[in-house]
Amino acid sequence: MSREDLLTVADTASSEPIQLVAPDGTRHRHAAFDAMLADVNDDVVADLYVDMVAVRRIDTEATALQRQGELALWPPLLGQEAAQVGSARALREDDFVFTSYRENGVAYCGGVDLDDLLTVWRGNASSGWDPYGINMATPQIIIGAQTLHATGYAMGVKFDGGTQASVAYFGDGAITQGDVNEALAFAASYQAPVVFFCQNNQWAISEPVALQTRVPIAQRADGFGIEHLRIDGNDVLATMAATRMALERARAGDGPTFIEAVTYRMGPHTTADDPTRYRDAAELEEWKEKDPITRIEAYLHTRGMAVDGFREAAQHRADDVAEKLRHGITTMADPEWQAVFENVYAEDHSWLERQREQYGRYQSLFASDAERQA
Q1: In whole angstroms, what is the distance from residue 280 CA to residue 331 CA?
Q2: How far is it, in rounded angstroms, from Cα 166 to Cα 136?
Q3: Whole-angstrom Cα distance, residue 220 to residue 176?
Q4: Which residues pair with 261 in a beta bridge?
Q5: Which of 269, 295, 299, 326 is catalytic?
Q6: 265 catalytic per annotation
Q7: pLDDT digits (tens, 9 = 90+) for 171-223
Q8: Catalytic residue among 278, 345, 354, 362
Q9: Which of 32, 39, 95, 196 is most buried by its number of CB atoms within 10 A?
Q10: Given 89, 102, 265, 326, which residue is catalytic?
Q11: pTM
C-alpha cells in the first residue's frame, strides 16, 4: 500500500475507529481493509473465533489458578481477545514480537508452550521461554521498554537488508512513558520496519485514558512523522487487516506504522486490582455489548454457518487448553534455590559467589536434620 493510500485510510480513522464487523454481526465494507482480507473466508473467520475462545479460557483458568494459590499474580486480558488474535494471525514466521505482560493471546497464537505461559507468574522461572524458538521475546514488565527493543531489532533488520518486521505491543498507559516516545523517534528517523500496536483498553490501572491524551492516541504518531491507523480493537477482522497493512509497509521499506486498537479491559488490571473502586459498572455493561467473541458468532450466523457446531468445537478446544494448563502448573516442580543465581552474569565473580554462599546458609536454617547430615 502506498503512503498516499495509507494517509487516506488514516484520515478516515482520525476520530471513529475503522470497523469491519459491528457488534450485531453486520459486515461493513472498507475497500483498503477488504483488500487485505482477500484470502480470509468464513472458515478462516471460524478459526479466529476458536482462537479467541481458547484465549479467553486461558485467561479464566489462569485467574482461577491464581485465586487458588497456584500463581502469585495474573494479568487478565478479558475483552482484548480480538486485538491480540487478529494481529498475531497476521504475522509471518520470521517477524519478531515484543510484548508487555498482558499479551498472552499473542503468545498462544505464536505457539508458546502452555506451561511456559505461567512459569513466571508461579515464580518458577525468571523469563518464560526461548525467544528465538518462536520469535517472541519474553514479556516485559517495565512499562513501554519493549518498544525500544522492537525498534532496535527493526533497525538491525534494516541494516542487514532483511525483509522481516518487528511488532511492539503496549497499552494506552505506556504512551506517556519516555521509552515509548524515544522508540517512536528512532523508528521514524531510521524508517525502521516496526509496527507499534497500542491496545487502548481505556484504563492504565485506575487512570482513564482521557487523562493520558486529549486527542485519539493514534494521532500522537503524527508528531513523529509516523503513519497511523485507528481501529475497532474488538473487531478481529479490522485488527487483522490493519496489522497486515502495517506489516506490508514495513517489509516494503516504507517505515513504521502506529496502530491504535480501541478495546476494553473488562477485568482487573491484575488479580491484585479491584476495578470496582474506580470504574463505573455501567461502563462495563456498555462494553460487554461490544464483546469480540459474540460479535463474530453473530457475523458467522449472518453468513449461514452452523454456529452451534463451531461453538461446540471451540468449547472442546478451550477445555483441552484449560486441562493442559492446569495439569502443567499443578505438577510443575519447584526450582532449586541455586537457580536464582544462574544466568545473572555471563561469568561468576566474587560478589555473586558471596551472595550465593550467604543465601545457602540462610536456606540451611530450614533444612531437616537428615538433610543437614547429608
Answers
A1: 40
A2: 10
A3: 10
A4: 199, 231
A5: 269
A6: yes
A7: 999 999 999 999 999 999 999 999 999 999 999 999 999 998 999 999 999 99
A8: 278
A9: 196
A10: 265
A11: 0.91
